[in-house]
Design a protein that fits this description.
The protein has 118 residues and is α/β, with parallel strands linked by helices. It contains 6 helices and 3 strands; from the N terminus they run αβααβααβα. The protein has helices at residues 4-7, 18-22, 47-60, 71-74, 78-83, 107-115, and strands spanning 12-14, 64-70, 90-94. It is globular. GO terms for molecular function: proton-transporting ATPase activity, rotational mechanism.
């Protein structure tokens, strides 16, 4: 069970969705570190970069409350996504404009289904 101390500093949303950046969700920490709470991924983005960012957002940064990841990007690091079980940041796989959501791939939904014996 999560305690208030586990999430008191979590105030940001990490996402891979450019549209949310346009809505003002993006944040960059103060220099000299200047860490972003987002990663814009395209066809040229290395899978290792995606994986390193996932680890940074889920294990190293303590100010991120929710991690949104496009499902087709999550598929590139599926082994990491499927192993992720922490409450914070919450991990949500979402569709992309050109990639519809497939509930059969969603790691959180798979765990819920197992919990209910489906």
């Amino acid at each position: 069970m999560a305690t208030a101390t586990q999430y008191k500093d979590r105030q940001f949303l990490a996402d891979s969705v450019t549209g949310l950046l346009l809505a003002g969700v993006g944040h960059v920490t103060a220099p000299p570190d200047a860490q972003k709470n987002f990663l814009v991924v395209d066809d040229k983005t290395d899978t290792s970069t995606i994986e390193q960012t996932f680890v940074r957002f889920t294990e190293e940064r303590k100010d991120i409350a929710i991690l949104l990841i496009n499902q087709h990007i999550a598929d590139r690091i599926r082994h990491r996504v499927d192993m992720y079980t922490a409450a914070f940041p919450s991990l949500l796989e979402i569709p992309a404009k050109d990639h519809p959501y497939d509930p059969e791939k969603d790691s959180v939904l798979k765990r819920v289904r197992r919990l209910f014996g489906e």
